[in-house]
Design goal:
mainly alpha; 81% helix; elongated
Length: 212
């Protein structure tokens, strides 16, 4: 009987913990929706936690309970944007069959996303060349579905073209992400344009990596 009561109490407490965690995640997402517009308007270096709290109609203390620092909320923002990106990627690829075209969808979306959020990304990259490397490590869980998407498409591409050489396609996915990110970092640091022929980017990568 005591075991049964103890089990029920544990079950109730576990359920409460799960509900509390879900509520916290929901609060974070609602704040990140508001934070996204604010970050994209003023840029990372000009973010003020007090101003963000005001926009979200909560106290600064409540904001810090959810996000322990300015840097933390930025990483959470990045994770949130990655999730939005992946959801949109899935929708955009719904009726796209070939791996080449699906990879082009990814590239077009990637470059378009960075172009629309330049103010958010440019300051951290200029101030810290390793920023994206640090962010990738912190956001590995969020980015995992995107890497799996790339892994699958490069494997399909190799099969389609009869490539017999064995590859670690997850590694190919990581290298391709870094390869395409190079265009973004160059654009951010040179103040140029990100109007890039994505077919050329993809063909360069394929010819220089997979078929060599």
């Amino acid at each position: 009987m005591e075991r049964l009561v103890s089990y029920k109490i544990d079950s109730v407490e576990n359920m409460r913990d799960k509900i509390a965690s879900k509520v916290k995640d929901l609060k974070k997402d609602l704040i990140l929706q508001e934070a996204s517009a604010y970050f994209e308007e003023v840029g990372f270096e000009n973010i003020k936690m007090s101003e963000l709290a005001k926009k979200c109609e909560i106290s600064v203390g409540q904001l810090y309970k959810l996000f322990i620092s300015k840097e933390n909320i930025y990483y959470e923002y990045a994770s949130y944007q990655i999730r939005l990106f992946y959801d949109k990627l899935q929708k955009e690829c719904l009726h796209v069959e070939s791996p080449e075209d699906r990879l082009l969808v990814y590239l077009n979306m990637k470059f378009s996303t960075f172009k629309s959020k330049r103010k958010v990304f440019e300051s951290p990259v200029i101030g810290d060349p390793l920023f994206f490397s640090k962010m990738n490590r912190k956001q590995e869980k969020s980015a995992k579905p995107i890497y799996e998407f790339l892994k699958k498409e490069f494997k399909r591409l190799a099969i389609k073209h009869g490539v017999s050489k064995e590859f670690d396609f997850l590694q190919v996915a990581y290298v391709f992400n870094s390869f395409s990110m190079g265009y973004v970092e160059y654009w951010l640091n040179t103040q140029g344009e990100l109007d890039i022929d994505t077919k050329d980017v993809l063909n360069r990568f394929i010819s220089g990596f997979i078929y060599k």
